[in-house]
Design brief:
The complex is a heterodimer. By secondary structure, chain A is mainly α. Chain A contains six helices and two strands, in the order H-H-H-H-E-E-H-H. Classes of the chains: A mainly alpha, B mainly alpha.
């Protein structure tokens, strides 16, 4: 696969994670609900899973970058599956439903898709240390990702004081 | 505690962006270990892990 196409896919992949994190924020502030501990841990998993495509875009395709994203994906998968199992056993109605599925089920699907995407990428791409020029799109996506993580930092301290 | 986790992730990204990739990776893995510890504590006693 050509470098430019690959870089575009990495940027797209990172945009998916940004979309998920922004969606969680919008839902949270729209409903005025505080996220639980497991929800925040799932966000940690999603942010960390974004490190894979981010590093691949910034420093060229390397197996260790995929590995870093994968361990965070597996962590997020574990946390969301625990929350799914807790709610299976619970007699209470599901708390936050979006398009027929609970938010933690969506998180599970996102993490699983990320793992699947990593496997597909590992199948098709070759490791190369070549570092590509950080174009405008790369800078924009990196800045957006950083801004979303910074928003998470600020809001987590707001939960602490409120 | 979660504020610390997100702050460490943010610092990792800053390290990636400013060229300190290895340090960023180490910090990211440390954050993951911290998150795993929190997850373990949450499994043993959910009330122990507060926001």
């Amino acid at each position: 696969m050509k470098g430019s196409a690959l870089n575009f896919l990495y940027e797209l992949w990172l945009l998916v994670f940004i979309g998920v994190l922004v969606g969680a924020f919008v839902y949270q502030y729209e409903t005025g609900s505080m996220p639980c501990a497991l929800c925040l841990l799932q966000r940690v998993g999603i942010i960390g899973a974004g490190f894979g495509p981010l590093l691949n875009r910034l420093y060229g395709t390397k197996l260790e970058h995929f590995g870093l994203g994968m361990v965070f994906s597996i962590f997020g998968l574990l946390v969301s599956s625990r929350q799914i199992l807790l709610n299976v056993c619970s007699s209470n109605p599901p708390p936050d439903v979006v398009m027929g599925l609970e938010l933690f089920t969506w998180a599970f699907i996102v993490q699983l898709s990320s793992l699947f995407a990593t496997a597909v990428f590992l199948f098709f791409v070759k490791e190369e240390g070549k570092q590509y020029d950080r174009g405008l799109a790369c800078k924009f996506v990196t800045l957006l990702f950083t801004a979303v993580v910074l928003t998470n930092v600020i809001s987590s301290y707001i939960y602490l004081v409120s | 505690m979660f504020g610390l986790l997100f702050t460490l992730l943010f610092v990792s990204i800053m390290l990636f962006v400013f060229g300190k990739k290895r340090w960023g990776e180490i910090l990211a893995l440390f954050t993951l270990a911290l998150g795993a510890l929190l997850f373990f504590f949450h499994m043993t006693d959910p009330l122990m892990v507060s926001l």
